Model the fold of this input.
Amino acid sequence: MKKHLKYIISLGAGLMLFSTSCKRELLSPIPQTSVTDATAFDTPGRIANQVNSLYAAFKSGAFYGGRAQIAGDIRGEDFLNETTNGVTGFDVWLLNATGTSQNFVKNMWAQAYYVINLTNLFIDGMNAKGTTVVGDALSKNYVAEARLLRAASYLKLLEHYARPYADGAGSRPGLPLRLTGIKGSGFSPMARSTVAEVYAQILSDLNYAEANLPLNYATAALNTTRAHRNTAIALKTRVYLAMQDYGNVITEGNKIAPQATAPFSATSGVAHALAPDIVTVFRAPYTHVESILSMPMTSTAGDNPGTQNQLGFYWSRTTGGGEFSLNPSGIVGNTGWTAGDRRRTFNAVISGKTWLNTKFNTPSPYTDWAPVIRYSEVLLNLAEALARNDAGINAKAVALLNAVRQRSDASTVIVPATKTDLINAILTERRIEFLGEGLRNFDLMRLLQTIPAKGSAPAKAPGDGGYIWPISADEMSLNPLMVDN
Done:
């Protein structure tokens, strides 16, 4: 956490530094300023600006502005490294990243805990003073946003730095569970809580968020970039899926996809539904109701992911750096993914190799919005849970699967012959639907599956070194109670 220690110490010295907003015109912040810690919660404007700064930290290029999603894909088997560049994740792709790997292992740990500390400082400040300034209802809204961002940060950290929940039902070492703000030095020592304890805190945060977030906001842009009630519900389907708690995935998923057959949509709060054309989701204005939470970007300096952090830079050969091509032995080679599927239009063959060329296609400074969670994921989360919980072939699971497939490929109807066929079809659909969005590693980890070999990178079984990342060397040096993986 050395990278951000100067920020923490400056808070202790009496400065509250406001980051750039998620998108200035969307979140309507007051002008950037520095105010003393003692007065940071004195006015509604200052409090609102701090909420914006939480999102700004979350959407850093080192985290959910790009590298969180990139790491989730390049560890899997669907991409081939083209540049052998350590800065852009060659070691991550090879599955041999070390605790000193600056650009992913150290930086993601630092940025995630920076977000967590900012949320903790904000929650502490609201409890001490802020609630009396903005009133109980708005205070709960703001704290709910902070707790949702904290939950999402811990979930991403668990994916990469802790053993999957399925390995020992959450009994393995998890993360230092920091829930109070750090304003100065001397607070580094903290032992790892168990994986189950961290998941329990994530769910506590998301349950609070569901109960206290607004149903919606005044604009489609805010509904896409600020957490609302359905955001918390959607994220809970991901959390419970990670825990293999399929009954609760069903409970949460049915809240925002209650229909037995297509078309599926949320009937309260933001009216989430699949976009008729998936390309719409990834093109300006990026605000279709399918996008439950995305991180907005602009060309303003500091309001985009920054050099070598951007999704388009990694995946695109024409507008990016062409860091990773698509593995012909990966999902792009799946014969069930038909040539007429609309999602194939994101791909392009250039110089004999296939690239995810236009899913994220704006040129530098790469202002494509970075997806965090989409409605299609909720549908497939729910489909998988229903399929696994039913002794036979669950009809709604089949309908959910086909809703996602037929949105992009109307000519194909998936008719599984067995329960196993249905589950495998859902897992395949996830690889197609979320290619380049960072969910492949999440799926491999939660199911405790071997990471397949690709190119020169060997396979990694669950018991092999490198199956999960080591703890950041910075944390190891600062925290005497920390035990490495």
About this structure: Residues 173 and 395 are 38 Å apart (CA to CA). The first strand starts at residue 16 and ends at 17. Strands lie at 16-17, 34-35, 79-81, 291-295, 324-326, 347-350, 353-356, 370-374.
